[in-house]
Amino acid sequence: MLQDIPGAGPAADAAGAEKLAGHDEHAHGKFWILALGSIGVVFGDIGTSPLYALKTALGQFKDEGVGQAQVVGTVSLIVWALLIVVTAKYVLFLMNADNKGEGGILSLNALAQMAIGKKTAIVFLLGVAGAALFSGDAIITPAISVLAALEGLKQVNADLAPFVLPATLVILIALFFVQSRGTARVAMFFGPIMLLFFAVNTALGLMQIPHAWVILTALSPLPGVAFLWAHGATGFVVLGSVFLAVTGAEALYADMGHFGRKPIQASWLFIVLPALICNYLGQGALILTHPKAVEDPFYLLAPGWALFPLILLSTAATVIASQAVITGAYSLVAQAIQLGLLPRLEIVHTSDTQEGQIYIPRVNNLLLIGVLALVLLFKNADALANAYGIAVAGTMVMTTSLAFFVVWKLWGWPLWRAALLIAAFLSIDVAFFVANLYKVLDGGYVPLLLGTASFVVMSTWAKGSQILAEKTRRDSIPIVELMKMLEKSKPTRVPGTAVFLTNDVAFAPSSFMHNLKHNKVVHERVVMMCVRNHPRPRVPADQRYEIAQLSPQFITVKLHYGYMERPRIPAALAGLRKLGLKFDIMTTSFFLGRRSLKPAEKSSMPKWQDHLFIGLAKQAASAPDFFHIPSDRVVELGAQMKV
Hints:
Amino acid/polyamine transporter I; 25 helices; 8 strands; alpha/beta; about 10% strand
């Protein structure tokens, strides 16, 4: 028997070794090709922030007019937010807290659980809350990015203003429509387009700085501190808008597994960060020389002849940013399914060579409905900006809090040192979060509602699944006792192999008991098989299988997978053949239990939560589809259960 691995849950496929090989290939691939790829995927969200961040922040002073102190102070706050929040916290600190090369809120959550050594309520709540708020970001980013880009048409011709909203809707519908075809071919152009976008940003900013050299004082943190001190409550409100400049920082961490830590760090430090700082300084210099430019400083940086090409380039960049967020949402949902936070949903692989290229139809449809609703509700980027910051700031608070457990327990830092470091980062995150709370009534309620809904769904599914598993275990017969019963009763043996999928191989699954009760037969070889997911991205091939021969006729098999892997039972059987277990798919039948759930009179959850759990269970993909089992080899046996 192979050595057991700690952890439990549902799981993935035997392509794990191939994925591990692909991951090593990433690590030893061409560094700058990976860096270019990261520019196209990772930095789209934060890279398009100059379209609206400074304009929104200085919008607080439109009525009274903007002066040098306001402009330089606000730009200083933006620059230092990029340096502290993104560079220091994410690029230099959090990217070292990787889970076998993978990053993101759920990877950090799994890492924190491993660091503590057990599942705890606080870690679970932080991880689920962070993932829930990130789902709100996935809906808001496409809406605000594309709207902000197309609003540049107003600078070309004021008569084009009525076409901004319809054009935004058309582009967003087209973007979500093409998701089912896969993005591999389009993605190869993302890097060069975003590289051109950042180069243009840099050039436009550098062209304006000489017109107001005083803007360079914004490179010091002192003007920003002085601005906050002088403006009191208004300065705190501006701080909430300044946060728009760092939205997308979570993507740097979340996409680390795709490109590696060092390529992302190099792209940020040498290309993206300088481009953003130059552009914000240029926008500030333009406003100092032409105060009316505060209405749209990004597009007014460009000379008249370059305005329309800049709009086209910016629109392309925002579509790329939206694409990155959408695919990130797919990955987040897939991880949540594997970690037992969501029901099994249909996952379509859109690439024959890249495991990470996936499409989840139901998630895509929900995102599209949400994005279109936001565009129609808010109608312009300035109004939508009010809804943006809270979701991202909340996710950052959760991420930083989870990092404390990793630094303290996993890295072995003294408690006081870990607390001091996390407190420093957390104080900034909390300040940004609180500064965004004033936007609640002006649109900030949107991400809070979306996040709350996502949190309720994930926590309900996790709790309901746990209750169901406990009831199933309590009502099941231990497999050892069942074998003793079969030795006495001697049921009829039929040729072939029967594979019974179950959550726990120590107990007889209901599908086996129903088959025995109604058909009164047992196959000549019976395999009790369960798939388990672990709080790590991938499980090495040599730890994939755990096999136990209970008798000449009975075998138990546990398949171990990481949360980044996908379930393919036929591929797992092929791997078992290499270990000496003979499986002929044409003589193997798969028995699965199909449960019909009903609310119990006395339940551990409120009635509304029971009904929500049952509704979620009905949305789950069938086990044959999820585990990629040939439908003509499947026998499903139903049973009623009360939650």
